[in-house]
Amino acid sequence: MRRVDQQNNFTNIGYRWWPEHWIINWGPTANYRLNFNHAGIREDESMGGGVDFEFAKNISASAKADQTLERFGGINFHKSSYSLSANTSTSRLFTLRGSVTVGDEIYFDPENPYLGRTAQTRFSTVLRPTPRLTSQLDLNTSRFTDIRVGAQEVFHVKILRALSTFTFTDRMLVRNITEYNSYSRKLGLNILLNYRLNALTVFYAGYDDHYRQADLIPDLMDDEFFPATAFRRTNRAIFMKLQYLFRY
Q1: Mean pLDDT of successive 10-residue segments in the chain (248 residues)?
Q2: In which domain, by residue range, is 152 found?
Q3: Does 84 reside within a domain?
């Protein structure tokens, strides 16, 4: 949801050295951000710094630390976070990306917000086994713990997403998206055929299928004493669309 009633101020500065050896370039960065609403109340303030590296053979890495003030529910929360990220694309056959972020985060409960600890990871790989086939696999995780009572886990979400595209011709391709969410226990499948009739007209045909663990579907609770954990279909759809671009 887009935020409104904001007055944003932002500045960023950085410097680069270019040894142009196995390290192509590297350097520090610093940023500062300050947000007020139109009533003059400070809602966000953050300052951070980091260092970026560009290596030979399309390899890059960065490290960053941030100190943030965020206002939620009329309370000012002070947060610290630290992150590491890396990217490599040494071959046209694959690309690897990854990042890890740890630090403080707000539990956004309007009735009882509090500051906890978060750990987030993002890993992605893009595979190009043939010129016509591209597959991207993403794994995102987010773990939140309540540090008021030790390190009690509040949630641990894992989202696995696969996107594959096969190009038959310059005009026709097929795309598949498969996604699984461990928190909601939902599985989604989507297949889309794309055919370009001409420069202004595209035809789409697709199939969409969604599943969820049966004991989490309110209308499908077969037995409260012996709940079913198999996946059940919640909805599916077949659709077609013809898109035409008018120019005048």
Answers
A1: 78 94 95 89 92 96 96 92 96 95 94 94 96 96 92 94 96 96 94 91 94 78 63 91 83
A2: 41-244
A3: yes
3-state DSSP of 7-56: EEEEEEEECCECCCCCEEEEEEEEEEEEEECCCCCEEEEEEEEEEEEEEC
Total domain count for the chain?
1
Assess contact for 72 and 113: CB atoms under 8 A: yes
Three-state DSSP class for 77?
strand
Which amino acid is present at 143? R
pTM of the model: 0.84
Q: Give SS3 for 210.
A: strand
Written as one letter, the residue type at 226 is F
Query: What are 164's two structure tokens?
Result: 């594959």
Tell me, what CATH number does 117's domain have? 2.40.160.100
- Distance of alpha carbon 4 from alpha carbon 48, whole angstroms: 24
